[in-house]
Amino acid sequence: MDKHKVHNGFTIVEMLFVLLIVCMFSIPIQKPKSSLTMFMKQMMAYSITMQQKAFETKQEVNVTINKHNALFDEYSVDYPSNISCTPVSFHYNENGNISKALTLSCYEENKQMKLIYQLGSGRVRYE
User: Fold this and answer.
1) Closest C-alpha among 83, 87, 90 to residue 107
2) Any residues with CB less than 8 A from the CB of 120 and at least 6 apart, and which?
3) pLDDT digit string (tens) for 93-104?
4) 41, burial (CB in 10 Å: exposed 0-12, middle 13-18, buried 19+)
5) pLDDT tens digit string along 46-82?
6) Distances 81 to 25, 47, 65, 102, 108 between C-alpha atoms, Å
């Protein structure tokens, strides 16, 4: 008598296919970052660079932020056409400390973000 093999399981190909589908659904979908968010990160990076420059060279570094452009010491940055900021001016002293605490607000259409410069710690963050 021949015994027939019973195939009650899944093949490896079927299991891999199911695993692929599960993995595709588990990948988090991130919305693209706005140009204002990217711009604020860039402004924060420029500010930190100027703070480091002041500390390394032991010289005062001036930062002037206008409505449509910014001057980081002698380096000029033009904003994208759809972004504008409130004008502020400050400097980093030879120890890398900021001259005053302030909040820089930038706008893109109906969205607003802020860069917050903290006195004492010299930190900058965006909201």
Assistant:
1) 83
2) 97
3) 888 888 888 898
4) middle
5) 988 998 899 899 999 999 999 889 998 888 888 888 8
6) 38, 21, 15, 24, 9
How far apart (Å, rounded) are the C-alpha atoms in residues 86 and 79? 12
Where is 125: in which H helix or E strand? strand 124-126
- Spacing of C-alpha 45 from chain mean position: 9
Residues 39 and 106 sit within 8 Å (Cβ to Cβ): yes
- Residue 18 burial class via C-beta count within 10 angstroms: exposed 0-12, middle 13-18, buried 19 and up: exposed
Task: Report the 3 state secondary structure along 33-96.
Answer: CCHHHHHHHHHHHHHHHHHHHHHHHCCCEEEEECCCEEEECCEEEECCCCEEECCEEEEECCCC
Tell me if 116 sits within 8 A of 44, measured CB to CB.
no
